[in-house]
Structures
1.
Amino acid sequence: MYYESRTPDLYQTETGWIVERGNLQNFFQENLSEYGFNPNETNDFIHYWIPRLQRAEFYAIYPQTRPVLDKIIKLGFSHQPDSILRLFYVIKVANDDSMVPAPQIEPFERKGFAVAEWGVVLK
């Protein structure tokens, strides 16, 4: 499923990564896997977003995990899932490969009926 929305700008931009354009595919493969996305979900993300991230040499990538997203975008379900994985990235053009404090990754535990949601907020 695909959706676009307008949301308040309450996203965190204190921790993240600076990634060179040529390393984006490897970065997202590893990062999404670390969070708990399966190969199909990861490949869908990469096939959709890598072609759209070609205008800059470096990107600042800030993860938005479920605690952040639940405050901004509410989800409703007709059948409540047993587990929910939500991860968006706020992505901005970066001028260089300056360091940004890296966040602690807390892997998702997939059990029972699981919902997985990924997305990007381009700035």
Note: The first strand starts at residue 17 and ends at 20.
2.
Amino acid sequence: MFIGHWAPALAASAASRKAPPIALLFVGAQLIDWAFFALLLTGAERMRVTPGISAMNPMDLYHMPYTHSLLGALGFAGAVWLGRSLVLRDVAGGLIGGAVVLSHWFLDLLVHVPDLTLAGSPPKLGLGLWNHPAAEMPLELGITFGALWWYARVRRPALARVLILAGVLLALQAINWFGPVEPQVTPGTSYLAFFAYGLATLAAWWMGKSERQPT
């Protein structure tokens, strides 16, 4: 799951006027992966390239006890809820933001081969849709662009900006699915991920600035 992680951010913004700004929701939706790639740079979490580990993704995510355990995801979600509640006195927005953060783990559960955990140690979990491209690919595109359509219908941003965000997401996903694969994990792996997440978030922020639905 890549761009599909932003579907809950778009859906949350469409569903509630109390939702945080769309750019913040985009950060929240991928907060767990922002943290993972940061920890990858330090060696606290690890992955390696293992061709054939799944049909769609050669990344062997063999050590992610902090970011991709359910306990860790709950910790990130709770921190978002607590921070927004205490700093901005926005309990509802904090709950929505926390739910978007937590959605990341459950979407990963659908697609990952068993590499997720409940609390950082086995058993490892994952339903493995990455081994079934005919199911995973339309699912990811469907939830992402279905949520974008809903968001656009409710929030009424400028159509051109919606289309630009859609193009950015589609291009990022195409590169993820069909682009060349690095033979090994390097610091550049993390920097490339940060660039992709940042680009999508920037496009979402720009789109959100044109919303015409009162919040």
Note: Helices lie at 7-15, 22-29, 31-42, 70-87, 91-111, 133-155, 159-178, 187-208.
3.
Amino acid sequence: MSDNTTTHDKLPIRMLHDRVLVRSDVPEGERRSGGGILIPATAAVGKRLAWAEVVAVGQNVRGVEPGDRVLYDPEDRAEVEVGGATYVLMRERDLHAVAAERLEGSKDSTGLYL
């Protein structure tokens, strides 16, 4: 299986062009604040970006690799279910940031630890 291929029920799936398939870190339903307060799923939250793990990338994606963590806007997403798991499909240009150990010390690094 190559970097831009995943499987679904024994059929290979290849991402096309500049598409990125990610597994969202945003928990569905209730969540807890940093102080331990339970926040119900129905609570309105201001616009907030979310982190996700890259699962597969298309052949024209240059700045992201499978296994990287990326920052994206969860309101601008297209969800897809593959093998019972929900993933988010987006274009590379819709990503706001990439966090990966391979970027450490690069000239594009901000020095922030995420």
Note: The chain has one domain: 5-26+45-102.
